[in-house]
Amino acid sequence: MTADDRSGAEPGSALGSAFAPAKVNLALHVTGRRADGYHRLDSLVAFAAIGDTIEAIADPAATEPSLAIQGPFASGLAIEPDNLVLRAARVHAAAGGRIDGLALRLTKRLPVASGIGGGSADAAATLRLLGAISPLPDARASELAALAASLGADVPMCLLSTPARASGIGEILEPVPGLPALPMLLVNPGIAVSTPAVFKRLERANNPALPPIPSAFADSAAVAEWLRATRNDLEAPAIAALPPIADVIARVEAEPGCLLARMSGSGATVFGLFPDAASVDRAAARIRADHPAWWVVSTRTAAS
Ligand SMILES: C[C@](O)(CO)[C@H](O)COP(=O)(O)OP(=O)(O)OC[C@H]1O[C@@H](n2ccc(N)nc2=O)[C@H](O)[C@@H]1O
Ligand SMILES: Nc1ncnc2c1ncn2[C@@H]1O[C@H](COP(=O)(O)OP(=O)(O)OP(=O)(O)O)[C@@H](O)[C@H]1O
Asked: Which residues form the GHMP kinase C-terminal domain (predicted)?
């Protein structure tokens, strides 16, 4: 359906939907600090098969979109104008797109403020969805990446949602062609972490860049081997703020078959790489049994 025939849509009918996959920082080096306080990063990111969903529903009388939130983590978010879904809709409108005649529905499956970019993924998915329903004028479409960056440092990478090396403050993106699908365990102990608070605790901002990324990897073991020469520089400051993160990393690392366990983003979600889906499933079942309050997901990241 295009913008022009939307006014004839049956109220409540589906106009489209977009998936907002979780972002995983496989490696995250902090390489400097800009004068404005933002940090320079060098990060390898991949995107998981688990994520939020944004749906657009016809609401012919609406002059601007309303937002409804459902799903397992809906209670973690208030419906307020600064929700990243609504902020993204306003950005779409500011770039010349239409946002009247529809309501938005977010299914929140990713824990809030958890280092896997849930809010950024939602913003990027909203921009993709609205761009499909009501395309931006050609002259403005090229501004989309800059507009996305205005919503958050992680939004441009989430707009791409394919394996990438991110530099600058996260907005300079280079596709990484050789990354295989990675069987992955995601574990969050149910503690939200504030990204600025973690950056504030960082002791050293000028760390070395990532080593060169190979053009191909045989399998997840090869990826894990390369990752061992890299770090997440935000892990130590996040653990200083929230010591239980270290226990989660140790718990995932102790699972049979775990190739590498590390925190993503500014935490507190920890990912574990495994050789195959069966070993991720077994690890997930054991950790769930021991820690029923933790969020434990068996998933995989998409290949390049
Ligand atoms: C840590 C990462 O998740 C890695 O992918 C991102 O850099 C954070 O991305 P994000 O959550 O979209 O971040 P923003 O909402 O833009 O910024 C939140 C806060 O984090 C800090 N921040 C963020 C990104 C960056 N490159 N340097 C920073 O110092 C700043 O204090 C900023 O005010
Ligand atoms: N749709 C949304 N989903 C999640 N958080 C949102 C949303 N809209 C606004 N926010 C706010 O954004 C903040 C950060 O949320 P987000 O889930 O993107 O963080 P994160 O997972 O730590 O991301 P990152 O990996 O970028 O550090 C939260 O404190 C939340 O209140």
From this structure: 226-289
Centre of ligand 2 to C-alpha 152, Å, is 10
Cβ–ligand 2 distance for 59 under 6 Å, the answer no
- Residue range 19-25: mean pLDDT, rounded: 98
- Assigned token pair, 178: 């050789």
156 lines ligand 1 (CB under 6 A): no
CATH code linked to domain 177-301? 3.30.70.890
User: Degrees (nearest 5) of the Cα angle 147, 181, 288?
Assistant: 95
Enter the ipTM. 0.94
Q: Any catalytic annotation for residue 23?
A: yes
- What's residue 9's pLDDT? 83
Is residue 164 annotated as involved in ligand binding? Answer: no
| pTM for the model | 0.96
**6 pLDDT band (50/70/90 cuts)?**
low
User: Among this protein's residues, is 122 annotated catalytic?
Assistant: no
Q: Please state, in angstroms and rounded to a whole number, the distance separating the CA atoms of residues 100 and 102.
A: 6
CA distances from 158 to 145, 223, 254, 271 (A): 10, 21, 31, 18
**6-174, what's its fold?**
Ribosomal Protein S5; domain 2 (3.30.230)
Ligand 2 atom 26 nearest Cα: 117
